[in-house]
Design a protein that fits this description.
The protein has about 240 residues and is an alpha/beta fold. It has seven helices and eight strands; from the N terminus they run ααβαβαβαβαβββαβ.
Amino acid sequence: MAALRYLNSKLAQQIDEELMSAAGAFSLDQLMELAGLACAQALATVYGSDKYPRVLVCCGPGNQGGDGLVAARHLGMFGYRPTIWYPKPGSKDIYKRLQQQCTNMKIQTLEPGLDDQSLRTALASSDVVLDAIFGFSFKPPVRSPFDTALPLISKAGLPIVSVDIPSGWDVEKGNAEGVGLNPDVLVSLTAPKEGAREFKGRHFLGGRFVPKALEEKFQLNLPEYPGFSQIVELPGSSDSQKL
């Protein structure tokens, strides 16, 4: 089988747009739901709720944060006790609805404060972090309040599961700036991103929604997902094709 294709920022954006075009026919809600479910499944695969029940879900203001909100709801359904840190909630209706769904599940969202004390407190009473802060459109520098949050999350010593690309990493250059998180688990969505080549932890692919026609058009060479799982674990990536 041909090597799995890693995506640069331009191609990742193009595939997203095509999925949600008239031809692709997906809605943003659908893709976010499937992505968030995959992230929740990956976290639950590695960090069982018996030993890691308290999950701190750190969400950014964009679609990445939306994936985190979906994952938080599913983790609640899976028997975890998630808490959401969401200091700059997105203004779109979809984010408000996703947040309401979490509230309906009795999942706490921390009150945004003027300092990072609520994050410090939450980290001290959590077992694992789900990082859904920045996505593939992120470009350095890291801005407030996330510039102080990333070092706090790193120093907490908790296991970290990152969504699509670790927060603070450039989608193509990886953690070249040295300001990003260093997660233990990465859940790439649709297809892995170029910057994730240097990732050394457990790497899952999620987002079991890419149509065959689109996979063939972009020569993604996706692996087969096992059974009815929303995720597949990737082997070492040294033999993957550069885009």
